[in-house]
Amino acid sequence: MLTGCEPWPEEIARSYREAGYWAGQTLGEALRGWAARGGDRTAVVSRDRRVSYRELDEWVDRLAAGFHAREIGAGDRVVVQLPNTPEFIAVCFALFRLGAVPVFALPAHRASEITHLCRLTDAVAYLVPALHRGYDHRLLARQVRLAVPGVRQVFVAGEPGEFVALADVDAAGTALPAASGGLAEPDPADVAFFLLSGGTTALPKLVPRTHDDFLYQARAASAVCGLNQDSVYLAALPAAFNFAWGCPGVLGTLHAGGTVVLARSASPDECFTLIERERVTITSVVPTVAQLWLDAVEWNRRDLSSLRVLQIGGAKLHRELAERVQPALGCRLQQVLGMAEGLICFTREDYSAEEVLTTQGHPLSPADEIRVVDEHGRDAPDGELGELLTRGPYTIRGYYRAPEHNATAFTEDGFYRTGDLVRRTAAGRIVVDGRIKDLVNRCGEKVSASEVEGHLLAHPRVAQAAVVPAPHPELGEQICAFVVPSGEAPSLVELRRLLLDRGLAAYKLPDRLDVVVALPVTGLGKVDKKVLAADALRRVEADQ
Ligand code: J2J
C-alpha cells in the first residue's frame, strides 16, 4: 500500500476477500467491464454533451496514454479540481488506469487548501478548469506552482494560458496503443484516490480509499438503491464529494449500467431542467438543497415525475422538511448518513414511514461493525446517546501521513471515532443526535473550527478566537466567530476579507462575529465550546 497509509490487518483483509466484498478488481478494469456491457448506451450526460460507455472507455485510454507520455505514472499524486463535467470522470479513470492517485479537491477550494493538498501529497500535477463560476483557476494554479514547485505540470480543461490543455493530453494519447497494453495493472488493494475528510484539524486530513474498498461500497450501495440500466442518477452536488461519487452516485450508477447526469450547480433551475430532460430517477442532496428544491416546486413547473428516490444526507434532516419530500416531489425519501472515511447508513424501502422520517437507517454492509460508546468507551444500551465508532470493509484504518492524529481518531483495535453522537433504536436504526467534533456543518460542508481560528489569529488585532456553530434557517448551521480583540476590534467584513486574502475557500468565512472580553474556559483551561455554542444560540435568537 502507498507509504503513509494504514492497511487493514492481513487476516481481516483476507476475510473481506473470502466473503467476496473485495473483488480484486481495479476501478480502471471495472470500467472496461461496464463499457463491454454498456456499449453505445449513454454513460454520462452534461448540459451540452453525451458520452456513451464505449466512448468513455476509449477516451479514458487516450487520456491515460497522454498522461503517461507526460510522465505521470504509478503512485504519482495529482490534485484534481474540476467541476461536474464529463472530463472529471474521464480524468479520474485515466489516472486510475495508470495507478496514479487523484486527490479530490472541491471547486470552491482556493490557495490555502490547494497548496496544503499539494504539499501533503507531494503532488506532481494539478488539474483545473479555465474558468468556473466566474473565477479564473489559472490564477490559482500560478499561485500554487510558485508555492509548491514540486507541482511540475498544470492541466487545464479549457483555454490553458501558459499551461497544458487537457485536449492536448487527449490528442497526444492517440499516438500510443491502449494505455493498459504496456502498463502493469495497479494493485486493487492499493489506494485509488484521496477524499477530503470533513475534518476537525487545522489542516484538512486526507482519506485514502482503495480500489477494492470503494468498488465494494459503490456496488453495495447500488444494490441497496435497486439501481439498474434504466437508472438515471443526477449528480447535483460536486462529484468529488463521496455522497455524489459513490453512495451509489456516479460509480454505483456506472456499475449498474445506468446513466449519470452532471449538474454544474445544485440550483433548482438547473437541476429541475435536467431531471425533466433526462428523466432522472434518483439524486442526492444535502438538507439545505432539499429545502431550496421543496420551496421551488411551488413555482417551478418542470415535470419531475420520473424521480423515484431523493437521497438526503450530509447533515441533520429535520422532520418538518423530511415530511414535505413525498407530497411535494412525488418520490420516496431515503436518508443517508455517510462519511468520507467510510461507513454509510441508509434507510430502506421496507422501513415504516416513521423510521424513514426520523432515523438515518442502518449500515450498508453486513460486515460493518458499529459501536455506540459513552465517554469512558463503554457500550451504551439501545436508546442511549453515545459516540458512534465503526470499522468495516470500506472504512479506513487511518488518515494519510497522520500517525499522531490517527492515534486518537482510531481506537487501538481499528475503530474509527466518528465524533457523531448517535443512539440506536431497538430495531437497530441509527439516529444522529449531535456531535462532539469541533466543526461547523454549514450546508453539509464541514468547516473545521480550528482551521478558521488559525486564520483569524493572523489578524494583528485578534488576541484570541474561537469558532462554534449556531443554527441558521437556510444554512442549517452558521459559522460564529468569537474574538477577543487587542486594541480596536476588527469588523466582520475586515475579518472575512483577511481570510479570503489568505486563500481560504469562501464557504469557510464566518457568518457572525461576536466581540467579547474573554473566552469561557473549562476546568482544564481549554476554551469551553459548549458554553460558547449556547452563548451563540442566545445571541442569534436575541437578534431575530
Ligand atoms: C446528520 N449528520 C450527517 C446525516 C453525514 C453520504 C452522505 C454524507 C456524507 C458526508 C458522505 C449525516 N445526518 N444524515 O460522505 O457518502 C455528518 C456526520 C458525519 C459527517 C461526514 C456520504 N450525514 N453527517 O457528509 O465526510 O457528522 O460526508 O460524520 O462530508 O457528516 O461528513 P463528510
Looking at this protein, list some descriptive labels.
Rossmann fold, five-stranded parallel β-sheet, 3 domains, nine-stranded mixed β-sheet, 35% helix, alpha/beta, 19 helices, GMP Synthetase, Chain A, domain 3, binds ligand J2J, globular
Number of contiguous helices: 19
Classify the fold: give the CATH topology of the largest domain: Rossmann fold
- Number of folding domains? 3
- CATH superfamily label of the largest domain: ANL, N-terminal domain
What's the total number of strands? 27
Small molecules bound in the structure, each named once: ligand J2J
What's the architecture of the largest domain in CATH terms?
A: 3-Layer(aba) Sandwich
The description of the largest β-sheet is: 9 strands, mixed
N- and C-termini, Cα separation: 53 Å
Structural class: alpha/beta
| Highest-level CATH class of the largest domain | Alpha Beta
Low-confidence stretches: none
The chain-level mean pLDDT equals 96
Question: Any idea what the radius of gyration is?
Answer: 23 Å
Q: Report the portion of residues in β strands.
A: 15-25%
Q: What is the general shape?
A: globular
Query: Looking across the biggest beta sheet, what order are the strands in?
Result: 2-1-13-12-14-15-16-17-18
Helix content: 25-40%
Describe the structure.
There is one protein chain. By secondary structure, this protein is an alpha/beta fold. It folds into 3 domains: 26-187, Rossmann fold (3-Layer(aba) Sandwich); 266-435, ANL, N-terminal domain (Rossmann fold), CATH 3.40.50.12780; 439-543, ANL, C-terminal domain (GMP Synthetase, Chain A, domain 3, 2-Layer Sandwich), CATH 3.30.300. The chain is built from 19 helices and 27 strands. Strand 15 (309-313), helix 14 and strand 16 (332-339) form a beta-alpha-beta unit. Helix 2 (27-38) runs antiparallel to helix 3, helix 2 packs across helix 4 (86-98) and helix 3 crosses helix 4. The longest helix has 17 residues, at 53-69. The protein is globular. It binds ligand J2J. Residues 198, 242-243, 247, 313-316, 335-340, 344, 360, 418, 420, 432, 435, 444, 446 line the site of ligand J2J. The site of ligand J2J has 22 residues, from helix 10, strand 16, strand 21 and strand 22. InterPro entries: AMP-bd_C (IPR025110), AMP-bd_C_sf (IPR045851), AMP-dep_synth/lig_dom (IPR000873), ATP-dep_AMP-bd_enzyme (IPR050237). Pfam families: AMP-binding (PF00501), AMP-binding_C (PF13193). Residues 451-526 form the AMP-binding enzyme C-terminal domain. GO terms for molecular function: acid-thiol ligase activity.
